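**User:**
If convenient, please work through this fold.
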Amino acid sequence: MKPFDKYPNDGVSILQRQTETNARHGYGLQLQKLTGQSECAYCGVDLISDYYRWLLLSVDHVIPLSECKRLGIPEDWAKSYSNMVISCLGCNWLDNRYEIQGHELKRTWALEQFFVLRNAVFNERKQRIQESRMKELQFYNSHPWIS
C-alpha cells in the first residue's frame, strides 16, 4: 500500500500547492490533515504520538523539485501536496539527492504520466532508503557507544 492510496481522490489528482514555510507548523500539518498520514511513508515510525517524535516530522517531495524542473514537470504539480509525503528527518535525509534515470525533458506532461512516475519514484526511493537504514543500523551497532 502506498501512502497516496489515502490521499483525496486516491492520490491521482493534483492537490493544492504548498504555500506555508514550515513542515511542523505549516505544510506538514496541512498534508497530515489532507491525507491522514501520521507515520513516515518510508520507515513507518509514528511522527505525532509525542513531542519528541513530532520534532522528527518532515515532508519529502517524492519527485525532488530539482528533478521536476529538469524534466519539465509543471511547477504547480511539483509543489503540490500530491507530490509530497510525511517522512521522518532520517529518511528524508538518507536519499535527499535522488536523480531519476531514463527520463528526459518533455514539452508536455499528461497528468497520468506524472502520477505513474511519482509512484515509481516513491517505490524506488523507499527501497533505497530501507537499504540505507540497514547500513546505518549496522554502523550504529558496530560502535562502542552501544553498551
Notes: The beta strands are 57-61, 84-88. The chain has six helices and two strands. The mean pLDDT is 89. The radius of gyration is 16 Å.
